[in-house]
Amino acid sequence: MSTAADVIEVMKARASVRKYDPQAKIPQEELDEILEIATRVPSSWNLQHWRFLVIASPEMKERLRTIANNQAQVSEASVTVVVLGDLKANETARVVYGESLKKGEISWEVYDRMIGQVDEAYQNNFQFARDEAMLNAGLAAMQIMLAAKAKGYDTCPIGGFDRKKLVEAFRVPDRYIPVMLISIGKKAGSVRPTQRLSLDQVTIRESF
């Protein structure tokens, strides 16, 4: 059983790695566990806005690399995960709350009220849907990186890629928006420490 100190050490040890051992592989069961852990993060109304497009074959990683400004880590890592956000997450509400209703965990009254709240928030409000997709999928992305580190793998979040080309190349439905790429694998060589702002520089007490 991991202790709180172990969890904190994982958080501190995580760093963005851009050079990977291209021969290293991640067993499917380990990758699945990493992604499953990522699904445990919270989300607005429990709508679970994240979807994971896993790119593992050499051919598809090379295709993704050209879309990601030829960044080597995209193809040299064991896998690169495209984290997507759901722009129509309100449709998931019926699945999530429907299961709770079926199990007797909520009443029909609660079910109708929750569905109504979600639908009203999403109705004709693309900016809200986009903000929610980015926010909640971002939580899952961070969890992927922490879970990977806990299992001995390194990662790098990547925002520098052509989203339109990615959607076209990988036939991503209009419902989903690319949030970021995350390379996952075994680092090659050492990682240079990055400079961090002090706590005083990033913390505001009570008010500006």
Order of helices and strands: HHEHHEHHHEHEH
What's the CATH topology label? NADH Oxidase
Let me know the CATH homologous superfamily.
NADH Oxidase
CATH architect. name: 3-Layer(aba) Sandwich
Helix content: 40-55%
Our Rg estimate from Cα atoms comes to: 19 Å
User: What is the average per-residue confidence, as pLDDT, rounded to a whole number?
Assistant: 96
Largest sheet: 4 strands, antiparallel
The outline comes out as globular
**Structure class:** alpha+beta
Counting structural domains, the number is 1
Number of helices: 9
Family: Belongs to the nitroreductase family.
InterPro entries: Nitroreductase (IPR029479), Nitroreductase-like (IPR000415)
Protein name: Nitroreductase family protein
Keywords: Oxidoreductase
Set down the secondary structure blueprint:
Blueprint: H1 4-13, H2 28-38, E1 50-55, H3 58-67, H4 73-76, E2 79-86, H5 93-102, H6 108-122, H7 126-150, E3 154-158, H8 163-169, E4 176-185, H9 199-202
Antiparallel strand pairs: 1-2, 2-4, 3-4
Helix pairs in contact: 2-7, 5-6
Q: Would you write up a description of this structure?
A:
The protein is globular. The chain is α+β, with helices and mostly antiparallel strands and 208 residues long. It contains nine helices and four strands, in the order ααβααβαααβαβα. The chain has one domain (4-202): 3-Layer(aba) Sandwich (NADH Oxidase), CATH 3.40.109.10. The chain starts with a helix and ends in a 6-residue tail after the last helix.
List keywords for this structure.
single chain; 208 residues; alpha+beta; NADH Oxidase; four-stranded antiparallel β-sheet; globular; Nitroreductase; Nitroreductase-like; oxidoreductase
